[in-house]
Amino acid sequence: MATQEELDNISKVLTKARIATLTTVASDGALHSRPLALQEREFDGDLWFFTPKPTEKTDEIAQNPNVNVAVHGGDGYLSIAGTASIVVDEAKIDELWGPSAEAWFEKGREDPRIALVKVSADSAEYWVNNDPKIVTLFKVAKATTQKKSPDVGENEAVEL
């Protein structure tokens, strides 16, 4: 299980991110990646996204719920593997609803196609850099002259 520090690093990347890339698996095994707006940024093990239904994305999730979510936020990157489901929960939709969701549904909040993609995380890998940019640039330059890889952050793979 992830430590509190690892969960904090995951949250750090998520709080600075607005968009994630959701990758689903098609029936022929092909991977399909799509940008989606993150709806909650405080990480509790689940990620939420609005989607209309039915779509190719919702069909792929119904056939194979194994997904990956890639995120870049601030000075960090995050890859979350998990299980997706399509959720139509009016209370959760109301909780997450906002102007960014409104733009994607012709009838606004009353659109009958509104659904949520819920991704329950199984594992994550993150890369975070807590150094100021100038320090990072210095480390890269120094490593280049020494023919070494620079130490510019923390990389961890964690089970959730």
From TrEMBL:
- Record-annotated General stress protein FMN-binding split barrel domain positions: 6-151
* One Pfam family here: Pyrid_ox_like
InterPro entries for this protein: Split_barrel_FMN-bd (IPR012349), Stress-Dev_Protein (IPR052917), YdaG_split_barrel_FMN-bd (IPR038725)
- PANTHER family per the UniProt record, alphabetical: PROTEIN BLI-3
Q: What is this protein called?
A: General stress protein 26
* Taxonomic lineage of the native organism: Bacteria, Bacillati, Actinomycetota, Actinomycetes, Micrococcales
